Amino acid sequence: MCMEITDAICSFCGSLCDDLTVKVEDNKIVDVKRACRLGASKMLGHERINSPMIRNENGILEEVSFDSAIDKASQILLHAKRPLLYGWASTSCEAQSKGVLLGEILGAVVDSTASVCHGPTTLGVQEKGLPTASLGQIKNRADLIIFWGCNPVHAHPRHMSRYSGYLPGFFLDRGRQNRKFVTVDVRMTETAAISDEFLQIEQGSDYVVLSALRALVNGKDDLVPDVVCGVSKEDLVRLSGMMRSCRFGAFFFGMGLTQSKGRYKNIDCALSLTNDLNTQTKFVITPLRGHYNVTGFGQVCSWQTGFPAVDLSRGAPYYNPGEMSANDLLMRDEVDASLIVASDPAAHFPNASVRNLAKMPLIQIDPYANATTEIADVVIPTAIVGVETEGTAYRMDGLSLRLRKLVDSDYPSDEEILDKIIKKVSRKGDVC
Amino acid sequence: MKCDVNIITGRTIDQGANIDSKLSSDYFNACARCEIGVEDLKTLGLSEGSHVKVSTRFGSVVVSLALCDGNPEGVAFIPLGPWANTVVNPDTHGCGMPGFKGILGSLEPTDEKPLDLKALMSLYR
């Protein structure tokens, strides 16, 4: 049987492009129209984990039934004193909600991939607020786009064509011709190459350059020296002039700010600059979120516990990044068991954290084999949200969208597996 | 010859397109690499595709060299992944985020070959 599904949503990156046309033949996706290379690679599929597995005493992962794997996972979690439930960026809000509930029952730390992505952004926003707009507003209104420490050509390939650049907007009928692009980065990226202006700054100098721009925007030109971290005052004056004279500016940023020296203080400064600009024109700021539902985890965890990541070991929600974040816990060797859902910390954490992650029991719930599988003790394969099962996800600007099931699958969903684990570990009196 | 560098890690489209097939050769080729500018390539006396040992005070890893015209002298880019994470700074500066960018280190020619993902991860078990 052959069918064409229109307006399908891509569950790869935080752009959640919702205009794909997917061709399905005999329950297999054979073609995807309008997807970028990242989205198409996900939709067209990769090799999967065939069966649940448990690592035997010889260190080999052995295929077992789903019931056996769920039993083993539940035993590990029940016996742990300091369990870490980590990941959540590439699954549905419904599964994330179950994960937070499981954390409450276990008294676990629940943290997401945001802690190695836009976690510092959340800290900055908690200090300064987020003067932002929907991507639709930006598409229809923004005549100046700043990309700071990000490379959407690689990480969000359709962002510029759908939201932030090329498409004509309601008030910008000539699309790209109505807009100016400015990229600020430490190297000439592909995004910089197609921008109207490129400011190359010294690595780790974002806070200083942002502060210089704040001084210029606020009329304190005499405070700015002739050269600021590799950028001439002349270039900074020109950029601050563009920012002040635009009708609607949009500032997008990525890991160049969150992972460089200063971390959340860089975000604090960028938010302050945006606030300063709003005294003179209209300016908004939006983090370019990576995985398709990392934004959703922040929403779900916040509405269930009050915080975007949480330590539930004290009987009440506790939040203190730098103390209870996944890497801090692992670096201090506090974690005695971990449940990794829809992410791959073994590939994306520093080696010192991975070493401690590997030496304690580790349960992985994921559709695909990855670096974490190599150190996991229990592996439970699941269906891909937005392809094989439905679910809710939040776009990078906070818009919630319903992902559809496109093909049938024998794999259970993350939500179903978590539900079964919750039932196994629940005690009398737990609310599930 | 040795070359001192400031290491930054980050996403690339090749890394992203293979993020769900991490055991593939495509993922290995996308991530077990270090991109530097032409001046640093000259300093090392190496050509694209040569193997290089990246060392920081947090670890070392062998990867392949790639030329990136956009990199200023002294800046090395490694796509995020298990190879990059061997050399990044685990200190979160009190906010949960390790130092994935701005890690001081060095590059030097080597006869060693990059480990594939399974071999690299077996070092942790």
UniProtKB/TrEMBL annotation, chain A:
Record EC number: 1.17.1.9
GO terms of molecular function: formate dehydrogenase (NAD+) activity; formylmethanofuran dehydrogenase activity; NADH dehydrogenase activity
InterPro entries assigned: Formylmethanofuran_DH_bsu, Mopterin_OxRdtase, Prok_molybdopt-oxidoreductase
Gene3D superfamilies, per the entry: 3.40.50.740, Dimethylsulfoxide Reductase, domain 2
SUPFAM superfamilies: Formate dehydrogenase/DMSO reductase, domains 1-3
Record keywords: Oxidoreductase
Residue ranges annotated for the Molybdopterin oxidoreductase domain, each copy included: 48-410
Keyword Cell membrane in annotation: no
NCBIfam families hit by this protein: one_C_dehyd_B
Identification of the protein by name: Formate dehydrogenase subunit alpha
Taxon lineage: Archaea, Methanobacteriati, Methanobacteriota, Stenosarchaea group, Methanomicrobia
Gene: fdhA
UniProtKB/TrEMBL annotation, chain B:
Gene Ontology molecular function terms on file: molybdopterin cofactor binding; oxidoreductase activity
Family matches, as InterPro entries: Asp_de-COase-like_dom_sf, Formylmethanofuran_DH_dsu, MoPterin_dinucl-bd_dom
Protein's UniProt name: Molybdopterin dinucleotide binding domain protein
Organism listed in the record: Candidatus Argoarchaeum ethanivorans
Limits of the Molybdopterin dinucleotide-binding domain: 7-102
Organism phylogeny: Archaea, Methanobacteriati, Methanobacteriota, Stenosarchaea group, Methanomicrobia
